[in-house]
Structures are given as structure tokens and as C-alpha cells.
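Minutes, methods subgroup
Present: GH (chair), OT, SY

1. OT presented the first of two proteins processed in the latest run. Sequence and C-alpha cells recorded below as shown on screen.
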Amino acid sequence: MSQPNTKSTGKPVASTPEKMPDLTVVQSTTPTKSSSAASVLPPKGGKLGRGLDSLLGPTSQMTPLDKKEGLTMLPLSALTAGTYQPRTNFSIEEMQDLTDSVRENGVLQPILVRPTGKTDKFDNILYEIIAGERRWRASKEAGRKTIPVVIKHLTDKQALESGLIENIQRHDLNPLEEAIGYDRLLSEFNYTQANLSKSLGKSRSHIANTLRLLSLPDSVQKYVRDSLISAGHARALINFPKAQELAQLIVDKTLSVRQTERLVSDYNKAPFDLNNPPSDGTDQNPTSETKAPKKTATSSQKSTLSEDGEDIAALEEELSNALSLKSNIIFKPDQSGHVQIRFKNPTELDKLMSLIFGAL
């Protein structure tokens, strides 16, 4: 390949790159409305709020392909799943939906990769996926041959942090995967919880509470991993002697977090048969959280929520963490109310609106 022209300063002058086999420089495109909700999350201080650009540098200034970094197309066969991929649970239904979308529209947003330092038998460079493994898998299922990528030279530490940031922004991690990712940054790369909070834009209390989930028995962790119970339910079960039995009761009776906490408290005072709990433990309507995927209060739950400050606080915390913006839920005596979401600047508002309208 011809070398770029240079001036006396030694800086490269833009030139038209040659076309390479299976490797073509492409222009970045603006995501459509259908894809914006999956990739845009309102910011909240630290690197998470500003996205991967804050960690890796703005994509608008990517170098050409012949500089070995930048935005390009790569054959799917040149990519392998990432060693530091925080996500391990891929929903069959979600993967099928994504595969159908990729088959019809292609991959609208590049995935992030880094060179492995290895080559195939034809001396082509091989790459490891840092963020975007689902899009890669869907592309293979859809029968595509290439995929848009951003090539970056990252350390192992940056690879794990980048994968966490991308997945947290896209709401792709369940609480247990998030906890495992945090734990790896702490144990393998000598982070402190304070460093982690600053880097990922999450509160220290959120990080500490998420990490506590790893102390649960494996059998209970599976309930969280499979979205059968929420993180709030799981935290109530930490150090509980019959955690698995109560986890199954939560699923069977769709207990709220508050009801679960009451059962734990009552049992610790005077153990009883969980299959025949005290009447005040399970005879109320479920409140803020039932099964993990159902986190929105229904009309039948409003009266309980309005009387139960702890459930409201739990909802506020989940909403704030999901949006990375401070949120408040206000109930009035007549059972009406409103949600307050605070933003610091027009950029945060714009991203919030993109998230809301993209989900409609």
C-alpha cells in the first residue's frame, strides 16, 4: 500500500486509501430512531455518562485503515468472542429479534474490537471483540460475511472497562453479570470502589450493593441470572439460611421486595415453615417489584406504593441507575403522582429524549 503524503512537520496528509480485499473503509452513519434507544443513555458524570468516547477518544477523529486503527469493515471470520466480555447470558428470543433486524437492515452501529496479535493461515490479522458480541453472533446467524468495526489497541484493563461501559449503557447486563464485571475490575486490575464509581458513573452504594449479590449461593444467583427475581429480592436473601427456598417462594407467589424483607425479618426473629408463613407476610398485594422483568407498578399497586416509602425508594434507585440521572417518584394523597428526572445540561436532556422516544 502506498504511504500517506507528509509535510515537513511529519504529520500525515489526508489521501484516498487503496481498496483492500475484504477490507473497505466506510463512513460512520447516524443511527436511526429504531437503533438509538439501544445505544444512547443519558449521562451522569464520569466516563459512563460520556460513553466510550471518554475512554477511547472520539470516533469522529478515527484514523484511516492504513494506520491500523479506525472505522472499517472486517470479515466475521476474523473475529473471536472477547475474553473480557461481561455478558454471558444471551436470550434466545432477543437474539432471534436481533438476527431478523440484522438480516433486514444490517448492523447499524460498529462493534469495538482489538487486535489479538495473531493471524490466520493466510496471514490476515485476527481480532477480539470488546463490545458488540451479540451483533457479531446475529450477523453470523443472518448469513452476513462482514461487519462494521472500530479497531482500537486496548490493554486488558481497558477491554474489560469498555465492555462494561457499553453493556451498562445498553442495559444488556443482568445484575449478576454487572456484579461479576465489577469484581473483575477490583480483583484483576486493582480498582477501588471509589475508582470504579468515578470511571463508570455509578454511585458507590450501587456498586457495593451489586457486589453483595456474589455472596449468594449459586442456586440463588441463577434466579437472578434468569431474571426470575430482581436484585432487590436477591439482596434481601443475602445471609438468609433458607435463601433458595425463599427465592422459589418469591417466584411462586410473586412476592414484592417489601414482602420478602418482612418474611426474612420475621423468620430471623422466630423461624417458621416458609410454606406456611405468617399471614401478614404474603396476604398483601405485590408492591414495587415482583418478578425482575416487571418493575412498573400497576394501578392495583399504587395504594400500597404510596404507603410504603421503602418500595418507592427502591423504584427511585432503580430508575436513577437505569437512566444515570437523579430521579424522584412523588405520590399524592389522591393516588396520583409524577416522576421527576433531573438533567444538568441540554445534552443530557437530548439523550434522555432520544432514549424515551426510541423506546416508543
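2. SY then presented the second protein from the same run.
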Amino acid sequence: MHGIHAKSFVQFLITLFAFYAIGQTEAHVSAVAEGDSLWTIDLDKSIAIFQGVVKKDTSNSYALNQLAHAYRASNDHEKAIAVFEKLAVTPEYRNTVFFFIADAYLKLGDFESGVRYLEKSVESGFTNLYNSGFTDLATISSSPYYEALKTKEAFKKLLRKIRALPFSPQVQYLDWSPNGEELIMQAALNGSGSYDLYVYNLKHRALRRLTYTRENEMAPKWSPDGKWIVFHRSELYSGGKELFLIRSDGSEEKKLTDQKGLKGTKSFPCWSFDGNRVVFVNQDGPDANDLYTVDITEKTYTRLTRSKGIKSNPTINKDGLVVYDVQLSQNSYSLVKLDMNTGESALLTQKNWWWTPVWIPGGNSLVTGYYETGATMRNQLAMMDQDGLNKRIITDYGEDAWFPSPSPDGRKIAFAAPVNPFFMGGSTLKILDLESGEIAHIAISGD
């Protein structure tokens, strides 16, 4: 009898410990979520929360990653390095953090350590600093430390090694022409390490290049009449961004915005339905990120939002409803709908990543990028009604899908997809037929 009681007591302790562990795990998850939500509101408090989670659970690699990036955002580079180096030995993050360690060392002026970690980043296969992603040569070139970095022999040697690697295409930000015959895109195809604008003719399967610069031409959009394309140009060395117009044949490029009219960096333009205005994002300081419009003829500006969060990718329909994505926490992007006529806004999504929304022609539904936090780490495309209802995945085919663009008749969706399942070799173009579900691959190569 005594043995039975002892066994029961042990079982009780095991059960009690299990409930305690579950409670601790749930508490950690809740704390991390709170830290994420405070990221753009109170960075210091967000850091304190992540520190608390890591102190109680040193194996929580997600919290470590968030803490490292929070330190990075607060320019505390020494602490960021210390945490990133802990992540470098974890299976989840070991190949993805070398660039961030390098960037932190370079910002501290330690070029020897910075170049050493850049080389580790290249060797890991995470990035080659030249083909793609936020860690490409363009990002390095736009950093304040680049002028000093490019004089270092170790960096010159690394660049020679990088440029000897095979170059893969990189396709992003697609837009279908109003007549349905062509797709405009930003792409890095020629080995320059920067994005130019290209137009792909679907009927003739022909690619033509519109821009030839060392800067990045990005996020192009056709005008409603198909005669003009608006885009933003990111200057590699100054980091400035302005909006430009160019005819669809590549002629008559002209500047649409400047610093005299409106200070800040302008990006992610989209046309109003009548073609008289362009909606865009303007960043003028760390806490000044809002939507504006510019009148094409008068060059006058109107501010549309005064709210927190990092906004991008606005899209507008015939009724003057603007939908855009906004980063309200470190680990989620939400979609917001704004009525330009009344100024009223509504949150369409909250959890996970919802980004790069585009109105389906007709203006009653949206296609958007979707990433479920903590799931398969795969970006998919989804559709929803204009009120955020009836959400459904449309590209669950085993690979990533980004930057959707619907055809003018709403029957097809063009999107960017990885050259290989790991996105290490660049991206290319695919088209989804919504009725049949079939996906066509379009080969894109450099000029």
C-alpha cells in the first residue's frame, strides 16, 4: 500500500511539473508576442521583454533572434553581435546570421571581422551578396561604411570571388499591363548587382530592358492607359529614393517627385484609377512613415495617413479604397484598408504576414502574399474579400510564391517563384490559372 501511494505521488509530481512546463511555455510565447507587438512602439520595452524570456529559457532561439534584431535596431551593435554569435551555432539560424554579424562589425569600424563574416555568409550559401535579397551588393554599397570598406584588400578579394560565381536571375514586383499583353518587373538579370526595369511580352515571349543604371529601379506600375510606368529609384550611395515616370517604350524618363516638394524617401507608387494621381509611401524620419498622393500635373502633395507602423505596397481600386501592408510588430505584417473619400480605415488582418496586396480587377477582392509565422517558412499567395473575409490560399504547391499581379480579366495571377526550392539561386516568373489551377513557368534570362 505504501508503494502504491509513493507511485501515485511520483505520478502526481510528474503531472504537476508537466502543467508547470506548459504554463511556462505559454507564458514565454505570450511574452514574445508582446515583445513583437511593442517593436515599433517602444523598442526599449520590447528589448526588456525579450531579455526576460531569454534569461528564463536560454534555448529559445526565436526569442534570441528577436533580441538580436532589437539590439541591431537600437544600434547597440556589440550586444547584437554577442546574441547573433549564440544563434550561429543553432540549427535554425546558423547560416542566416553571418551577414548581420558582419554588418554590425562594419558599423563598429572593425573591417577585418566584418569581411571575415561576409565571407562566412558567402560560404554558408545564405547569400552571395551579389545575386539577391536584402544582403546583396546593393545593400552593402548603400551603407555609410562602404566608402572605407571598398578600399580594403580583403574586401576586394572577396568581391573577385563573388563575381566569379554563376549569376542567377532575380525577379520581383510584377505588374500586368492594362491590355494584358505584357508584364513589367524589377529584375537583376545582367550581373550588375542592381535592379533594372524589364518588360516581358507574353505573346512573343520576348524580354526588353527599359533602364540601364547603377541604381535600383523598383516597384514599377503601369498607368491605367498603359502609356506610362511609375517606379521608385533607390540611389545606392545616398540611400535617397524618388519617384520617376517612364514611357512604356523606355523613352521620356522624368522625375515625378523631389525634396523641394516633399522631404523624405518615396517608394512603392501606385496609380489612382483615373490616372491623375499616384499614391506612395514617404519616409521622413524613423517615426514618420505615411501614405501620400502626388498630382501628376500640378505636382501637389496630399497626406493620407498619420499613424504608426512601417507602411508599404499600397494598391487602389475604382472606389478610392487603398489597401496597404503595415509592420506593427517585428513578426507580423497586417493589411489596412483606407477610404480616400472619407479617411476611414479598417484592419483587414492581424496575425502572421500579409503583404504586397493587389486589387483583383473589378475592385471587390484582393490577392496578397501570405506567410504563416512559425509554420513552414514558406510564403504563399492568398485571396480575400475587400473586407478581409473569405481568406483562402491559392498557391499551396510546395514552393514559395511572391509579388502577385492579377491579369486584367482577373483569371490569372503572375508571381515570382524561386529558381530552386531554397531560393538560393534567385527567382523567376510563373503564372497561375485560377480556374484550372495550372501553373506555367516562364524562363527569364539576362540580356
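Chair's summary of item 2: Residues 170-442 form a domain with the Neuraminidase fold (CATH 2.120.10.30).
Next meeting: continue with the remaining queue.
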